[in-house]
Amino acid sequence: MQEQLSLLDLVINASFVVQLVMLLLLMASVISWYMIVQRVIYFRNSRDDMLAFEEQFWSGIDLAELYREGNERASEGGVILGMESIFRSGFKEFSRLAQQSDMDAEAVVEGARRAMRVATLREEERLEQNLPFLASVGSTSPYIGLFGTVWGIMHSFRGLANATQATLATVAPGISEALIATAMGLFAAIPAVMAYNRFAARVDVFENRYDTFVDEFSSILYRQAYALRSRNRKS
Questions:
Q1: Which residues form the MotA/TolQ/ExbB proton channel domain (predicted)?
Q2: Cα–Cα distance for residue pair 202/35, rounded to 1 Å
Q3: pLDDT digit string (tens) for 163-220?
Q4: Which of 50, 68, 89 has its CA nearest to residue 210?
Q5: Full-model pTM
Q6: How far is 83 from 51, CA to CA, in rounded Å?
């Protein structure tokens, strides 16, 4: 009775090229899972921070006081990201431009909007971090695994040329070890594709919330800018 080879034996006895493909796919899978876990934690924390800031922003707190609280946290080593970072960029630019008496309200608010747009782009870059790698793993891993499979089958059939008797039992181990590469390619690709699609949808949600906040905050700044310019003209 012929001894059956275990999965580990098939990997160890595979050709060098197939082993290299398996190692590459294993590394891609490990890195992908690390990035998936990191992104899950990041998106969860970003969502919690965004909801907390929105609640505080719409609670009626004075915007200058909200800005000062952020300064205090930043001075203590805190990292301010997400929607609050967009708010701080806009409010800082608004405060700076509002002090220039030669600028009208439209120009002041437009300057603040530009600052918020730049901050929004930075936040979007943070949200999309590692997503290109997941997309690359999801799209290329099956083909890398297929390459290993094709190479392994070619190597197996070349070995039949020197065999005195060509049977299924002779070629089966070589084909089996080659097919492992395809399985590993799918193992690396499927989680990466699913995670990428999920994270891309989350990024869209965050971007829409950021854009909405910029528009709403700009409306508030418009009112403050016109009120400030009206007081200056009266005085």
A1: 84-211
A2: 15
A3: 556 555 556 666 777 788 888 999 999 999 999 999 999 999 999 999 999 999 999 9
A4: 50
A5: 0.83
A6: 9
